[in-house]
Write a structure and sequence with these properties.
Layout: H1 9-16, H2 23-28, H3 33-38, H4 50-71, H5 77-88, H6 90-99, H7 115-118, H8 121-160, H9 168-180, E1 185-192, E2 199-206, E3 209-216, H10 219-239
Antiparallel strand pairs: 1-2, 2-3
Helix pairs in contact: 4-5, 4-8, 6-8, 9-10
């Protein structure tokens, strides 16, 4: 059985790098509802982290959208939406929580307390969002921005370098198979540039219809851009009653 590590407020603040005016807010972020139901007497003055998680999710989505809007002035609404989804999805937030080892400190019921449970993506993402909610209540949106922006910057760098990239090809395949029972096909339609820096242009088709065209320094990047354009076009088509 995994033994929960009970921490003083100052230690929690040290772990996340934020000093709270009201330490009870931070402590509440680490109280799972199962622990609250099992041991209400052990967390006097605290609440479970569900409400903080709800608030933190809303603040995170706003700050991420605003951050992307300023950082990428030339990106389309569809591109910004895809990037935001990649930055705030459960697996990404769970990764942020693992960086701080937050799962070790969550107060959870004895029946649910296992190493596997503490490492679940959903639980870790919830803790991270609850911490954001606690910071917001204690220090406002600026406090949350100071805390979360370094995480967003590191993850965005990973995406830009090709790791953790938004996989538009997979998304397009899932949409095409679900809606039309077809699999997209890709074809190189042009190559240009010097031999050491070729630029590829690829098209993606669904049946005989060209849905998107993309360019990139390799075929994979060009296919990703073509798939992204196709997804945007399909969204327009689906939303257009004509």
């Amino acid at each position: 059985m995994h033994q929960v590590i009970m921490l003083m407020p100052s230690r929690l603040e040290e772990i996340i790098g934020v000093t709270f005016h009201d330490p009870l807010l931070l402590q509440s972020a680490f109280v799972h509802r199962s622990f609250m139901h099992e041991h209400p007497e052990r967390v006097p003055g605290l609440s479970s982290n569900e409400r903080l998680e709800f608030l933190g999710d809303a603040v995170l989505n706003f700050l991420t959208a605003a951050w992307l809007f300023v950082r990428y002035p030339d990106r389309s609404e569809g591109e910004l939406t895809s990037l935001r989804s990649a930055l705030v999805k459960t697996t990404t937030l769970a990764g942020f929580a693992r960086e701080l080892d937050l799962g070790t400190y969550i107060r959870i019921s004895r029946g649910e307390d296992t190493p596997a449970a503490r490492n679940r993506d959903a639980l870790l993402a919830d803790i991270f969002e609850a911490v954001l909610g606690a910071i917001y209540l204690d220090q406002g949106v600026e406090g949350v921005s100071l805390f979360v922006t370094p995480f967003l910057e590191r993850q965005m760098k990973t995406i830009e370098e090709g790791g953790g990239e938004v996989n538009y090809r997979t998304q397009l395949q899932e949409v095409a198979q679900a809606r039309y029972s077809q699999t997209p096909t890709y074809r190189v339609i042009d190559e240009d540039g010097p031999a050491h820096q070729r630029v590829f242009t690829m098209e993606v088709r669904l049946g005989e219809q060209v849905l998107g065209i993309g360019r990139g320094l390799n075929k994979q990047a060009a296919a990703q851009t073509a798939a992204q354009e196709a997804l945007q076009r399909l969204a327009v088509v689906e939303d257009d009653p004509a």
